Amino acid sequence: MTWFQSLNPMLVFLLTPFFVARWLRMAKAGREPSPILKMSRGAAVVALSYVMLATVAAWSAKSGLPASWLWVVGFFVVYTAGELCILPIGLGLFGQLAPLGFNATTIAVWFLAAFAGNFLAGVLGAAWSHLSAAQFFVLTAAVAATSSVLLLLFDRSVRRQSAA
After folding, report:
1. Calpha distance 142→149 (Å, rounded)
2. pLDDT class for 2, splitting at 50, 70, 90?
3. Which residue segment(s) compose the domain that 111 sits in?
């Protein structure tokens, strides 16, 4: 199990060049999505990764068969792809939108938001002992999907702020 913990950092290193190259190609073609849209899509991909786990958990519970470790690897690939659309993009966006002289403070607010997200993850983690694995992963997917929708609601106002 401990080997799986190294998958996410390894995939960050492996997938980042592909995302950067894709966004550069899109920018050159004038089709690069806004930072908030990237983050919203990333949250949707994270939700998809948890839906995948919920499906596998439900199948495993129904069949009585253990799930293959390949599903864990697949989860981390999808999850990390979503994560790469959220974390570096959000940090850059907070730095870009910071009022003059408040870059460090604004970036600290980004990390405060990350703290709140990690705290919420701990609260959700407590539900593990009360829910089936499939229900838990559906709940986690719902939180990520809600984040995706909320980000979409902010897209227009953030684009106006960035242009100003």
Report:
1. 11
2. confident
3. 2-163
Is residue 15 a contact partner of residue 80, using CB atoms and an 8 Å limit?
A: yes
Domains in the chain, number: 1
C-alpha 33/C-alpha 89 separation (Å) is 11
Give the type of residue at 143.
V
> Contact 151/113 with Cβ under 8 angstroms?
no
Q: For the residues 72-92, what does the mean pLDDT come to?
A: 95
Give the mean pLDDT of the chain: 93
Spatial CA neighbour of 85 closest among 48, 23, 39: 39
Would you place residue 46 in the very low, low, confident or very high pLDDT band (cuts 50, 70, 90)?
very high
Q: Select the more confidently predicted residue: 10 or 104.
A: 10
**Measured between alpha carbons, how far is 106 from 98 in angstroms, rounded to an integer?**
6
A 10 A CB-CB count for 44 gives 20
